[in-house]
């Protein structure tokens, strides 16, 4: 699993450091400052797939922004949109699926182990 954000790597590291175990949950963490062009360019997702050793077409992106959905689809990945502003869900038509909450995430529909809420 990778974390690919337009934020700088330094900002990502700072934000996730407040949550025990988050950093260890990701095999790859990549910031926007590590690629030539940020989202909506597909560069960050293509680089994440490369670092994971996976073909982009075998990747699933979970995104909360329109530029991120565009980047994922341009990278030829499947995309689940979880809009950060639910009232804008109708704008995410390029995504394969739009859900309202990560609690609605059904990874088993994508050939992955199901999400379990440990909280």
From TrEMBL:
Q: What is one process in the GO biological process aspect for this record? A: glycerol biosynthetic process
Identify the NCBIfam families for this entry. Answer: HAD-SF-IA-v3
Record-level Gene Ontology MF annotations: sn-glycerol 3-phosphatase activity
Q: Which organism is it from?
A: Lotus japonicus
Q: Which PANTHER family did the record assign?
A: 2-DEOXYGLUCOSE-6-PHOSPHATE PHOSPHATASE 2 (PTHR18901), OS01G0757900 PROTEIN (PTHR18901:SF44)
Q: Which InterPro entries match?
A: HAD-like_sf, HAD-SF_hydro_IA, HAD_sf
Protein name, UniProt field: Uncharacterized protein
């Amino acid at each position: 699993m990778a974390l690919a954000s337009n934020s700088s790597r330094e900002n990502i590291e700072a934000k996730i450091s407040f949550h025990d175990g988050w950093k260890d949950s990701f095999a790859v963490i990549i910031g926007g400052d590590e690629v030539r062009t940020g989202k909506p360019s597909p560069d960050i997702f293509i680089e994440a797939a490369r670092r994971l050793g996976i073909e982009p077409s075998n990747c699933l992106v979970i995104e909360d922004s329109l530029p991120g959905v565009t980047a994922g689809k341009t990278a030829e990945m499947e995309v689940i949109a979880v809009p950060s502003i639910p009232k804008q869900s109708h704008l995410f038509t390029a995504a394969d699926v739009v859900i309202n909450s990560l609690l609605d995430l059904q990874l088993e529909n994508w050939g992955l182990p199901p999400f379990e809420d440990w909280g």
